[in-house]
Amino acid sequence: MTLRVLMVDDEPDAEILFKQNFRREIRKGKYEFLFAQSGQSALEVLRSDEAPSLLLLLSDINMPGMSGIELLQAVKQELPSLPVIMITAYDDLQTQGTVHENGANGLMSKPVDFIALKEKLRNIAQSVPT
How many domains does one find in the chain? Predict the structure, then answer.
């Protein structure tokens, strides 16, 4: 099974970074990534025909326009069962509390520990009914 991930980050380099760190898994068909550079763009993807096969959302918290927290709240209203992992450069107790109160399945700090992220993704993929 391929795990389809929507990665949301306003930094264009994030797409390159994730493709580079997941290149083996992408080649083997373990992961397929979609990318959005804003919360609004992510919602458009989630509301499109791509959404039914999407299995996970990864989102930065600090973005212009719609923040990652606002995106998380919207996603949990529309797709409450979609797993969401938030990514932040500012990992503090308040941020941790906020993301968990809003239904996130995890919080990762920047720079992203890709080994830990891959483990989280594996755990989520195993818990998804096939």
Answer: 1
